[in-house]
Amino acid sequence: MTVVLCPTPVIETENLVLRAPAARDFEPWRDFFVSERSKWIRAQGTEPDEVTAWRGWAGVIGHWVMRGWGSFVITTPDSDRALGMTGPWAPLNWPEFEIGWTIWSAENEGRGIVAEAARAAREHAYRVLGWRTAVSYIAPDNTRSIRLAERLGARLDPRAPAFPGEKEALVYRHPTPEELA
After folding, report:
1. Consecutive H or E run containing 98
2. CB contact burial 102-124 (16+ within 10 A = b; e otherwise)
3. Cα 81 to Cα 73: distance, rounded to the nearest angstrom
4. What is the pTM of this model?
5. How far is the C-alpha of 125 from the C-alpha of 139, rounded, in Å?
6. CB 42: neighbour CB atoms within 10 A?
7. CATH tag, 11-180
């Protein structure tokens, strides 16, 4: 039986398809989550095991139910294989709405996939969800994500409310809809 969230938008870019997360994406998510690659997104002290991965994935899917929007799984027009995730994200304790991203395997890094997907997701947050601002919370030593945020036009905002929890995070503020126009 296939269960999907309804209704959820599908965003198509020149090279990518962004769709809602689904149960079928758990295996690639799990493989990412239990690897060292997920260290940037795991809560302090969280064990990268299959059970925690399952709970995390349930939270990603549940975000759509609780908020009516959430992060998109990144795929391509010729394959529904999940490459990563990006999009609007705002758990209950987040001080601001975030555009977040992950790429799930090293083979897909450096190809512009996340930049293209994050631009589309940010545009969706602004145009469809009516956001007036967005941030990205990034670990200070996550240089790849910092470079990507800057490539997207986001700038370090030292006056932004601090990231909740035990992990330190820099706050990168994205250009407003007016600044992107």
Report:
1. strand 98-103
2. bbbeeeeeeeebbebbbbbbbeb
3. 9
4. 0.93
5. 23
6. 15
7. 3.40.630.30
What's the DSSP call for residue 5? -
Q: Which two tokens stand for residue 7?
A: 């209704």
Q: From first to last of its 181 residues, what are the pLDDT tens digits of the chain?
A: 666 666 789 999 999 999 999 999 999 999 999 988 888 887 766 778 899 999 999 999 999 999 999 999 999 999 999 999 999 999 999 999 999 999 999 899 999 999 999 999 999 999 999 999 999 999 999 999 999 999 999 999 999 998 887 788 999 999 999 999 8
Both tokens of 82, joined, read 């999940």
Q: What is d(CA 11, CA 72) in angstroms, rounded to the nearest whole number?
A: 9
Q: 39 phi and psi, to 5 degrees?
A: -55, -30
Separation of CA 140 from chain center: 17
- Asked whether the CA dihedral 90, 60, 110, 131 is positive or negative, the reply is negative
